## 1
Amino acid sequence: MTELGERAETLLKALIELYINEGQPVGSRTLARHADLSLSPATVRNVMSDLEELGLIHAPHTSAGRVPTGLGYRLFVDYLLTVEPLKEEAVDSMQTRLASESDPRVLLSTASEMLSNVTHFAGLILIPGQENARLRQIEFLKLPSNRVLTILVTDDGRVQNRVIPTDREYSSSELTEAANYFNDAYSGSTLAKVRRMLLGEMKTDSDRMHDITKTAVAMAGKMFDQEEQDTDDVVLSGEENLLSIPDLCQIDTLQKLFDAFKTKQDLLDLLDRSMRVNGISIFIGGESGYKALNDVSVITAPYQTGGAVVGTIGVIGPTRMNYEQVIPIVDVTARLLSGALSGAKLSEHIEEAGT
């Protein structure tokens, strides 16, 4: 930016906006008409030459016009872009769509699908594995025939229910006291850590353990014995939208991109990196570091529950996308998703599990 004057900035911004809207290389005469500057085509050509030397634009093939480079897009997004907030009715519509889902995992998939539908690109979301989620609360509910309903709720709103057979009948007060002990001891720890700590307590001399401690450890231990350890996953929505985008119609481009969708490892790594950023992350072309994503841009934002970041949501589209529109859509979706996840109530899950 220090090497660009105000005139060059204005022309670069106008060129990128024209190219995003029309998809055709921009010539000096066209740019002169749209830049809102009283400049001759010859002067505009000189400025365009300077922009090309700086690596911000280039001429595709033998075209007389110019298109932005990845570096040009980056400068445009970081310094020249003016992002307008979404209209209130659009936000209300998105919020209503998310509020209609109560199951957290369905809610996450719905958010990715909604993002794809609104942007007409591919939506993606990082769903954290259960082992990395943190324990919010556990409940033990008495059932007939020496059975106990164990309900485990994580900080991202997911609920696991298991019916545990027991060797004797426990009173409701015993189970409540056992759940209180367990929540005091383990709430806020990851499920992986809880599992390790339980294994340690199970090896402790049972004769020296308090009865309530024994009950809590026994109930939770059986719950975790039935749990499957899972890993982080990426859910994709609307990948077919990319097939109709002219910028991505090359067979090699699509094959590399869809191979990345199939394996998901590059996407997992990218979304994991995005979780460590406070706010929007924008990867333009080769900035992602993965060859399969060289011809696309990825815009992501972290989502959270209970004040803690638990995943990332975003879109994949062409580098020639309307960043002014897409950035606030991703940002608002992440914020609405965070609110929807944090609004999950334990009492509702307990009622559903008991029916």
## 2
Amino acid sequence: MQKDVIKKIVFKKVEKLEQEIRETPYHKGTEHYLGLLKAKAAKLKRELGEKEEKSSKGGAGYGVRKQGDASCILIGPPSAGKSTLLNAITNAKSKVGDYGFTTLNVIPGMMFYQGARIQILDVPGLVTGAAKGKGGGRKILSTARSADLVLLITDTERIDWFEKAKEELYQNGVRLDLSKPKIKVVKKTRGGIEIIDPFSSFNRETVISVALEFGLKNAQISFGEPINSIDEMIDVFAENRAYLPCLELVSKADRLAKKAKTLDQRIFVSGVSGEGLDRLKKEIWQSLGLIRIYLKKERTKEPDFGEPLILKKGGRIEDITAKVSSELTERRTAALIWGPGAKFPGQKVSLKHPVFDQMIVSLVE
């Protein structure tokens, strides 16, 4: 009871700050003041999240162990067809019903695609006010933070839900289809606040005030790009933001006229008829940025094309060592490569060499 009372007090403080932010017009003269208000609200939210994680054995979200090569979370309103879709694209057997809140806990399923094992998590329906805890929403939103991809799903009659869901996720520190702002904060033991901003994004007083609000008294703050919003700067100081790719799915597509589907960039799917499922799997694969690596355990043998090693785009050959047994990687200091990324078959490269989709690799001494 005492914890609930504390939460309510904190939320009241946040609401008061957010109301003042809304009522304060933005211009150069109010930039400093608004920055301080937003920093105070962000700090209160962060502290509340930290307390919730400490008080929960499994963390603030559902305690589900990540499995497979990547993890996706299905987020939608109650009775949006999430469970039907999960059953259609994975090995799960989620309970399905034509009434709200069929799913009362998180249900994992495993999707197999291009040799990858992709975990799909079906969570309870998300309702308006989730970021403030309504309908167990903070638990759902916190689970999203640990995923690699967010799948927002609604049915054909609630298309406007997408924007509502994005706002709930934003309020809980989840940034969809955005990159982390290029602001580097290096904490120091002395010297006060040093600001390196060749783009003149904000005045010095604003940056210092926000930093102090987050307890930074000595630090070097370097801007690597123009920052257009105070919110972006605060996100860096808050240190608890999750930047995730997102796909928008419209379920029950079998009930919608074909013409209506061609007017939208979203993915129309039906777990009943199977419509759009092939496209969905392909889009999930691409959004996760996964690639296939085929290992040759011996130079003379053919690789096993049936079981590729799954890595992320932008990785290096040295990342293979974290995925395979020590017997294969012990004393290996270089690699022979074939296919994409190789200048010629069997090229010898260092372990720092980048990896590409469908590259064949043989680790050597």
## 3
Amino acid sequence: MSEAVSENPQEELATFKRPGDGEDTGKGPVPDPADLSIEEINPINPRMFSQNKFQGYFKRLREEDPVHFNETELAGRYWSLTRYEDIKAVDTDHENFSSAHGITLGLPVDTPLPEGALNVSMFIAMDPPTHDVQRKTVTGVVAPSNLANLEPLIRERTCKVLDSLPEGEAFDWVDTVSIELTTMMLATLFDFPFEERRKLTRWSDVATAVPGAGLVDTEEQRREELIECLQYFTNLWEQRKANPGDDLVSMLAHGEETKNMQPLEFLGNLILLIVGGNDTTRNTMSGSVYAMNKWPEQFAKIVENPGLIPHMVAEVIRWQTPLAYMRRTANNDCEIRGKQIKKGDQLLMWYVSGNRDESVFPNADQLDLDRKNVRNHLSFGFGIHRCMGNRLAELQLRILWEEILKRFEKIEVLEEPERTYSSFVKGYTYMPVRVTRKK
């Protein structure tokens, strides 16, 4: 990096309330969407997702107000795009809709951050040409040749984890399987000390957590833990500068476009790679088990024909949608479906809604392994920001289910899972299951 981590990085990361956190932090049940006027619906509410009540809200928006306006004192003006075609159109138009102001709901673009506030940058929140060259620096880790090299290791670890599961006893699938498998993979990609790999899980969770909702108490606690992440990886950076390998840290430390990053830019790219490699795949792993319990007739299809597994993986990724939305910012005044978007307005592309758009995916709330257009889902995004790790995620999920079918008659979800309190990461925090092995 161009300079060392600040001797007092806390001064660079002041506490402030983030717009996506505090729109609705109540603890009670969310209201029935039918009881609200369309103007009262604000889909950024994290309780909609933690209570698994998002479907009805987005159905109303798709039908009645697909380009939906909200304005709050903290976030200013923002629009929710809820239909498939509108989301795809904005996602593929980086000239008119910028990523450079952030990928989640934030402060208005003309509002300065509080002095010293957490202001990390990452290449997914950049426009060309900086985005393109920084992304290119690390794409080698998910190149087809490297994925082919990783497949035996992924399968070996998957087999080991599945073989260790207790039969006839309740255990948490989220922690025992989903988190463990994805964290091991992440440690390999970073060449991170394997015995300390759960630090990666913690930093991933802290980066996207809502303060006061159970994982971290305050923004100050989040700041301190992310500083720990930065300092830990700064030491790895210095080691890889001297002794490079084929890992992500080495790629960043030696890339022409990344070797002079500022510390907070390094932290931003770390958070991007950690969350992208951890939260999304692990939540789809858990979601796949939940979905196969919810629709046992679909599970029967892959038992009868394991060749359907790749198709099932794509359908589960659509149905789960592990990141609920991404944000863009309007570069110019424009119009979408007759709504007047102003320059600087934030646009939230609700992938979770576009993936449930009945005009594109009939019976979209259902898991359907016979769905013909399943690979057209929005979960990986479109355009220049399409998820670079999509093939790795699919590989991990395919191997998981190939090995599940070899071992288990069934995986029974024992109670409704606990879900992530977030309107950005759509995931699971706890899901008790019991497995029955094949005789």
